[in-house]
Amino acid sequence: MINDIKTRTERKKEETQKKIVSIAMGLYRAQGIKATTMEQIADEVDISRKTLYNYFSNKEAIVGEYMKKYLKVHLQHYLQLLDDLPDTSSRLVAIMSKGEEWSRMEIPEDVATAYSEYRLRTLIQSLSDQSIRTGLSDIYCYIIKLGQRSGELRSDINEKELTNYLITIVMVSMLSNHEKVQSEESIAKNINYFLNGARNMFSN
Fold first, then answer.
1. Quick check: 62 and 20 in contact, CB under 8 A?
2. Total domain count for the chain?
C-alpha cells in the first residue's frame, strides 16, 4: 500500500512538472521570457508560487528541463550517428551542426540566449549538480571517450574534464555571438580550439 501511494505521488509530481514546462514554454513563445514571470506561470498552472519554486528555481531552469526531455528521447539516435562517423572532428561537427534538429524544439532566440547566460552563470555549480545539465554534456563525453579509445585524443586528461572544457568553449561562443544556432564558421572555430588542446600529439 505504501509503495502504491509513493508511485501515485511520484506520478503526480511528474505530471505537474510536465504541465509547468508545457505552459511556461507556451508563454515564452507567446510573449517572450522576459515578459513572463514565475507568478504568471504558477497562476496558469494553477499552483502556488511556493509549489512552483519547489520544482524550478527560475524561468531558465524550466527551459533546461524542456531541453533535457528532448535530448533524452533522441539520445539513441545521436549515439548511433556518432558511432558511424570516423573521427572526433566529424562527430563534433555532426552534433554542433544540428541546427534543424534544435529548431524543432521551438525555442525562441530570446529564450535560447537567456538559457545560455544562465548556463554560463551556473557552469561551476553544474560540475557537481547534474540536475542543471540537459544531457548534451553526456553526448560530448561519449564523443571524447570514442576519441580516447581510438588514440586520437589524449588520455592523460579525464574525459569529464575535457567535456567541461569543450562545453565552456561552446557556451562562451554562443553567448558572445548571441546565436541560437551556431554558424559553420563558429562551429569550426570551437572544434579547432578544443582539438588543439585535446589532440594526442602522437596520433596520426
1. yes
2. 2
Query: Does 38 share its domain with 131?
Result: no
Residues 63 and 44 in one domain: no
Which residue did the predictor score with more confidence, 45 or 167? 45
Rounded Cα distance between 40 and 62, Å, is: 14
Question: For residue 113, what is the enclosing H or E element?
Answer: helix 109-121
Cell of 143: 564523443
For residue 1, name the pLDDT band (cuts at 50, 70, 90).
Answer: very low
Q: What is the grid cell recorded at 33? A: 521570457
Distance CA 108, CA 31 (A): 10
- Distance CA(29)–CA(38), nearest Å, equals 15
Residue 155: give the domain boundaries.
Answer: 58-204
Q: Are residues 103 and 149 in the same domain?
A: yes
Q: Are residues 120 and 159 in the same domain?
A: yes
Q: How far is CA 98 from the centre of its chain?
A: 13
Instruction: Give the CATH number for residue 137.
Output: 1.10.357
Q: What is the pLDDT of residues 26-78, one digit of tens each?
A: 999 999 999 999 999 999 999 999 999 999 999 999 999 998 988 888 888 88
Q: 157 φ, ψ to 5°?
A: -115, 130
